[in-house]
Write a structure and sequence with these properties.
By secondary structure, this protein is of the alpha/beta class. It has seven helices and twelve strands. It is 27% helix and 25% strand. The two termini are 22 Å apart. The protein binds glutamine.
Amino acid sequence: TITVGVLALQGGVVEHINLLRKASSHIQSPDALQFNFLQVRTSAELSQCDALIIPGGESTTMAIVARRLGLLDPLREFVKVQHKPVWGTCAGLIMLSEQAAATKQGGQELVGGLDVRVLRNRYGTQLQSFVAELDLAFLGEGAAPFKAVFIRAPVVERVIASEEKEQEQEEEGEAGSVASQGKGQGKGAPVEVLGVYRGQGKQEEAGEEGDIVAVRQGNVFGTSFHPELTDDVRIHVWWLRQVVDATRHGSLPVVADGV
Ligand code: GLN
């Protein structure tokens, strides 16, 4: 049995579990593989998980609740020490970033793991929510566009270069443990840009080269949008396959295969 948790402090939890259930029926395995989907609110529950989704919601609130429940350090351990597969959607992507900038609010505690800086609320308020069709090459050649739902969505403003990280780590010296913020994958896996939003009707808002809305770095995957609010299982299937590989072989495939 592979146990996949969804962090259930706040936000869109049930939607992910429903789509995970649906997606799991698309995964064929010769040995009657079983999945268990678990809502995670305690570190004991987290320790049962082989993989985790951090859902959308409101990342400041999520971080405050996680701190209060003593979950921040166990989460950092899960992501950065155990290197288990983790996927953050929207607020979850913010939680998994090493740095966050906000249009209004200031700093907040993060789990980290992705060597990126996110910009929160990139497209404005709830009322400016929108759906856009994205071409996601990782879903396979010729895959139909994915209807991406953006709700007060963050985007990846930039990737943090490894020289910057080294410098930061030198300055921190031995003081910064793995549990502290500011150390993603170290010199490990590179940040891969897996999805870009180029405007479609919001051209004026997306930068010239488009906004980065899906990234992966080793075991950590993040999307600005909410696949769990659609009935399109493709990204959940794609991710679950990586979870299966990582759980069985202890590593994630470098090249994504189609769904
Ligand atoms: N804007 C929210 C935040 O900053 C994220 C929105 C969402 O998850 N839909 O945390």
